[in-house]
Amino acid sequence: MKRRDFLKLAAGSAVAAVSSCAGGNRGSGASSPVHSAPARSRNETVFLSGVNRGSDEETVRRAVRTAAEAASDFSWLSRGDSVFVKPVLNSGNPYPATTSPAALRAMIELLKDKGAGRVVVGDMSGIEHVKLSPGKLSGSSRSLMEASGMARAVLAAGGELHFFEEAGWDAFHEEAPTAASHWKTGIMMPDILKQMDHIVLMPRCARHVLAGSTLGLKAVVGYWRTDTRLEYHREASTLQEKTAEGNTVETLRQKQRLVVTAADRILATFGPDNGYVFAPETGLIIASSSLMAHDMVSLAWLLENRQVMPSSEKDGFMDMSRMVARMGNRYVVSMLGGMGQALFSETLTKNDIRTLWDDRVLMHACRISGGAPEIIIEPVDGNIRDDLRKRLTEMTTLPI
After folding, report:
1. What is the pTM of this model?
2. How many angstroms separate the CA atoms of 204 and 277, rounded?
């Protein structure tokens, strides 16, 4: 059963009854949504390139390159270095349910031009499609990347493909978040990252039925082995906090250099695999060396487009319901660990999606890093209207 099909059932009284089972409210008071902003911290710049609606692939690729070169001078990249590019491959659905193939190709070509030796692109898809266990593997991230169009783009640009489940259960190692953590065990990360010199993250801009949104910070889940994903979803009262903390493991802190999102198309409702795709008149390429600053602008862009999208296309109850999110998370737990784990899992509290300051993932990331950055938005071409830059700046400015 697909996630969306299950969640439709979750809206019915039969499935709703499961939430009253023993353990149904365990942990529900452990963490509440954030409504106050964290302290201010350093300035961070986010670079924006504009892409007109209907632009061809070559135009998108040029815009990606322009934004990435503005966000980084690539002084971290020595000739012959290896780079791991982490896209979002939660399903085999096309962009923006997954990362833009055109953007991915542009980044690989840029890295090669800057002197990179190996450029490896990889991920492990969601539990609905791929399940890795100690003695068994079902599903294939490779086939999903082919279906999404990313695999063809990677190979055309001279990149390599790598899928964590194909290396097996033992091809992971344990890392601990460096921040004070809600994790009870270590996080199982793929061994290939030890072999790579640098990491470039390429998420997408999308709604998420469980977490509220899925941007750069949320993309970290794609690295994790099945047992780590089980704890993440089972101890659901702190799912958002664990998302932020998962980005503080040593490998990511030491090796992640750049975050680039193609957001000329946005998955504006439901998510992460399905929903209404909105294409603004002028789309954005969002690039920054700061993951947190990137996500603040990306979330502002998601909120901006949810405001102007046709009201007839909004997903209504399914998009906004906290009950649907709670039951959807139990379904994910059941796929990861069985029905027993699902019945006694903690209750997920879904983020509001009104302002940036409602987003628990972002707010916890700010707190554990010393404060929310002051965002400087820097257009890198003439396609970004000044009124849009001002609105995004206002949305990302900390309340006084």
Report:
1. 0.92
2. 12
